[in-house]
Design brief:
The complex is a heterodimer.
Chain A: H1 2-11, E1 32-34, H2 43-49, E2 55-56, E3 61-63, H3 72-76, E4 81-83, E5 98-100, H4 105-112, H5 117-123, E6 127-133, H6 139-146, E7 159-161, E8 170-174, H7 182-191, E9 197-201, H8 202-207, H9 220-224, E10 229-231, H10 238-248
Parallel strand pairs in A: 6-7, 6-8, 8-9, 9-10
Antiparallel strand pairs in A: 1-4, 2-3, 3-5
Chain B: E1 7-9, E2 15-16, H1 25-37, E3 41-50, E4 53-62, E5 67-75, E6 80-82, H2 92-102, E7 105-107, E8 139-144, E9 156-162, E10 165-172, H3 180-186, H4 191-199, H5 206-220, H6 227-255, H7 259-280, E11 289-290, E12 293-294, H8 300-324, H9 328-334, H10 342-347, H11 352-356, H12 364-367, H13 388-411, E13 429-437, E14 440-448, E15 454-460, H14 462-474, H15 482-489, H16 493-497
Parallel strand pairs in B: 6-7
Antiparallel strand pairs in B: 1-5, 2-13, 3-4, 4-5, 8-9, 9-10, 11-12, 13-14, 14-15
Helix pairs in contact in B: 4-5, 5-6, 6-7, 6-13, 6-15, 7-8, 8-13, 14-15
The chains are: A alpha/beta, B alpha+beta.
């Protein structure tokens, strides 16, 4: 009993008080900043080396929807592409995920997520989500689960994962959508009543990621439904996920 | 056991393909059965397409002597062979997998069901999957999945129950199949991509899988990684082990409604993965291991901060475990639940902490040392219970062991550079790379062709050995104990499905 009290006392309060203004450590690879002037050598080498084909040249751009934030391009380009610790990477449109040389983290943040009044009215105070892993490696799944742990405690905003799609307001998709999961994913989506949203979490869900070239995927689901929120990363940090969702539902 | 039918090798020691004996499949079959019965262990059993048919390779381990043995058989127009499974239960998934990928029938296999793709030649969406069905008036079935209740990967569980009691659990996987092994070969000219792919085989075992694959490549390129790089990799591997074990203790606490444990172990886990992020910028160790060494060094300041984190963690874990394992309400649920006894564990070929909790002393770090473990010996830890308690408690003692390993590795860091260049790979060679990740033995066998290019990558996650143990564990238990049993193994779907 004494040990239990000692443990509780030591544990204290683990929740991060302000998830909106929390800053991640310097080493975290978040938003990439491109400085076109610093480029030396062959840009094509860089384009070819990127494991997921996220980099384009002339002008140089990084597609956050494909990027796995491995940092190889930072080493190869001598810092012309530099990963900052900026972690608020969510976007409400696929095109917003293209980062070019002129774009700063603040500039990206200003236009990446459009909070719609209707979404705020519907889901601003309560958002229940059904997570579907369709080929995810368990990286994104672990970070989504971490959103609810004692440190991040996403539940404080009325956002929770629920067991049944019938109780859900939307789907959180992870993984490149394998052929074997495509039917179940569609079933889950159809079981959710309207209005509903789709959130794609991680490079695999957004673009196929490292599995983009696989013959075992079937991404037809993404042709049929509209993705409302993209959360880049491999996997995205819990703060990236939570902030993206909060911005999307218009929570201050 | 010198024998013309097998060639001896060690973990990470490449052999030339021409030196690997090619023997008739009947001989291979009887040899494997006999050797496993006399103490050997089946590590890999897989096919590989060549210009003149299909090759079947078998890799066996002699754990006590730190040796591996490989042999092979050629199928040229042969459509079937006599299955090993009736004599060797641990071969049952390997044979199903071989049939699924190459269409060569293991004749007499008692459970020849799809593994990931379906029956050869039939579209997987049309492949009928016949679940085992129990007969009886009040027998009922409970089907769960592929989408589960929580935020976890997909798989289908089919319980045959009488009342609350589970008589049989059939686990159907394959939903996560992404074609990992094909992607390794298809992208063999993109070494960076291959490293990132290996990190995504199982996203909860990034350092384990990337390390396993990359060490195989390094040994084929005859690159000796620096002592410093080995130490950094080992620190990351043990941090991964500690983090997941803590997460599992948290989840096990949650499954028995012990919320203090759920919160405390969860918070401790966060501390550990944040330490991993301080090394390499990612909470799961992505981007750290690269062919030839590591991408991130551990500076003296970082070394200090890791050591002080470990010191604090040591004290905090000890207290949290003391409270957890002395709580009557926890013990009542943990003890004697989900028992897999030693004989069952051995016969199905279990590995990792789950096997060690059933009294089987297997640990690659000790049996077939790799990387940093070549310098620092690891003592094998075992418990005898084989129940949820043993699988929980072994995690606690392994966390303590890993903290000692991290201290030793950080103390013994040399000043060498942490990265070397990797050139071309040996031609026509085979290497098996074994790694003890947190879940158990990861095996990568890589085969190169006449141009020194990767021709085949065979991946085996420890989940491949251990999923069947979960079926055995829940037999005779109440169905409500399933989540607890499941979590006590915490097996990978993506690592199995590939």
């Amino acid at each position: 009993m004494l040990n239990l009290l000692k443990l509780r006392r030591k544990h204290g309060h683990q929740a991060i008080p302000d998830l909106r203004s929390a800053v991640l450590m310097e080493s975290h690879r978040g938003f990439p900043v491109i400085d076109e002037r610093k480029f030396e050598g062959d840009r094509q080498t860089l384009v070819n080396a990127c494991p997921t084909g996220a980099i384009r040249k002339d002008p140089v751009s990084v597609d956050l929807g494909k990027c796995i934030f491995c940092g190889e391009c930072e080493r190869m380009s001598g810092g012309a592409i530099r990963f900052t610790n900026g972690h608020k990477l969510g976007a409400s449109g696929r095109t917003q995920l293209m980062v070019t040389s002129s774009l700063s983290y603040e500039g990206f943040r200003d236009c990446s997520i459009r909070a719609r009044a209707e979404i705020h009215r519907l889901f601003g105070r309560s958002l229940k989500l059904r997570q579907v892993s369709a080929g995810g490696c368990n990286g994104c799944e672990m970070e989504l689960a971490a959103c609810g742990n004692v440190n991040f405690d996403m539940g404080r905003f009325g956002i929770d994962f629920v067991a049944s799609p019938r109780h859900a307001d939307g789907i959180v998709l992870t993984g490149p959508v394998t052929r074997n999961m495509a039917p179940a994913l569609m079933d889950a989506y159809r079981s959710i009543s309207e209005p509903k949203i789709v959130i794609a979490v991680g490079a695999c869900a957004i673009s196929g990621g490292v599995f983009g070239g696989s013959d075992e995927t079937n991404r037809g689901f993404l042709d049929e439904v509209k993705v409302d929120l993209f959360v880049p990363g491999c996997p995205p940090h819990p703060l990236t996920i939570i902030n993206a969702v909060l911005d999307f539902i218009g929570k201050k | 056991m010198p024998d013309v039918n097998w060639i001896e090798m060690k973990n990470l020691q490449p052999v030339a393909l021409e030196d690997i004996p090619v023997i008739p499949v009947e001989e291979l079959r009887s040899d494997v059965i006999e050797r496993v019965k006399s103490g050997g262990r089946l590590v890999q059993f897989f096919g590989s397409k060549t210009s003149d048919g299909t090759m079947l390779y078998a890799v066996l381990a002699d754990d006590n002597a730190s040796r591996l043995f490989v042999s092979s058989s050629r199928f040229n127009g042969i459509a079937s062979y006599s299955a090993m499974t009736p004599d060797l239960p641990s071969a049952h998934l390997y044979e199903r997998e071989f049939y699924e990928e190459f269409g060569i029938l293991p004749d007499g296999h008692p459970w020849l069901k799809p593994v990931r793709k379906g029956t050869p030649g039939i579209d997987e969406s049309e492949t009928p999957y016949e679940f085992f069905s129990m007969q009886g008036e009040e027998v009922h079935e409970v089907g769960v999945g592929p989408i589960h209740a929580g935020v976890i990967e997909p798989g289908h569980f089919r319980f045959s129950c009488h009342g609350e009691k589970v008589y049989h659990l059939e686990i159907k996987l394959g939903f996560q199949h992404r074609g990992v092994e094909e992607l390794f070969v298809k992208n063999r000219n993109r070494p960076l991509y291959l490293e990132k792919l290996s990190e995504s085989v199982a996203g909860d075992t990034v350092v384990g899988h990337a390390g396993g694959f990359i060490r195989a490549v390094e040994s084929l390129a005859d690159v000796a990684v620096s002592r410093r790089a080995k130490a950094i990799r080992t620190v990351a591997l043990e941090l991964e082990r500690i983090a997941v074990h803590l997460g599992d203790l948290s989840a096990l606490s949650g499954d028995v409604a012990y919320l203090t444990g759920n919160s405390v172990f969860g918070a401790l886990r966060t501390r550990v993965i944040n330490t991993t992020m301080s090394i390499c910028g990612n909470r799961f160790g992505r981007g750290l291991v690269t062919a030839g060494g590591v991408n991130f060094d551990i500076t003296p300041e970082l070394q200090e901060s890791i050591l002080s984190m470990v010191d604090r963690l040591d004290i905090d874990v000890a207290l949290a475990a003391e409270v957890l394992f002395s709580s009557a309400s926890v013990l009542e649920r943990f003890e004697k639940t989900g028992v897999v006894d030693r004989d069952a564990a051995a016969s199905i070929g279990m590995v990792g902490p789950a096997a060690r909790a059933s009294g089987i002393a297997v640990d690659v770090r000790s049996d077939h040392p790799f990387g940093g473990f070549e310098f620092v010996p690891v003592h094998k830890l075992t418990l005898q219970g084989g129940d949820v308690f043993a699988r929980a408690y072994i995690r606690f003692v392994e966390i303590q062991q890993s903290m000692r390993i991290i201290r030793q590795q950080l103390m013994g860091m040399s000043d060498e550079a942490s990265k070397k260049n990797v050139g071309t790979l040996r031609r026509d060679s085979l290497v098996t790379s074994l790694t003890e990740a947190w879940r158990g033995e990861i095996a990568y066998t890589v085969i190169t062709d006449a141009n020194g290019e990767i021709a085949r990558v065979k991946v085996k996650d420890p989940s491949f050995n251990n999923w069947f143990a979960l079926s055995l564990a829940v037999r005779g238990e109440g169905i409500s104990d399933f989540p607890l049993c499941n979590k006590s193994f915490n097996l990978s779907y993506s690592g199995f499905d590939l």
